[in-house]
Design brief:
By secondary structure, the protein is of the alpha/beta class. Helices cover 31% and strands 15% of the residues. It has 3 helices and 5 strands, in the order H-E-E-E-H-E-H-E. The longest helix has 17 residues.
Amino acid sequence: MNFQRGHVREEPEINLIPMIDVLLVILIFLMVTTSYAKLSELQINLPQATGDEATETANKQIVVAVDSSEHYAINNANITFSDIDNFAQALRKAAGDKLEPTIVISADAKAPHQSVINIMQAAQQAGYGRITFTTQSPAK
């Protein structure tokens, strides 16, 4: 029984504007309070370290040097880096009959990080797991 003839029943509405306002305030709050890490803000000065001199004998070491323009040298002999396989073969040749030689990486402070990773990958591929880095003591 409908006692209210001619009265149209109103459909309920959901007003989205207040909800959007609240979401925008939350978004602004998160944007203001979030801190963004920037790599350019890091001030890293490498390589400098203090410590004891190496106690290993020099005859079991292979010294691999790389400068800032990515020129490589193995035991003071210049070598052209073409790929990891050729560099690993050059490390094996420099090791000769030495068992488990230590790869000593002497990298310039401004050398690209990838050049050091290339040396480490070549040493791993050649089967040499003992790797160390040379540093210089900071100037006093």
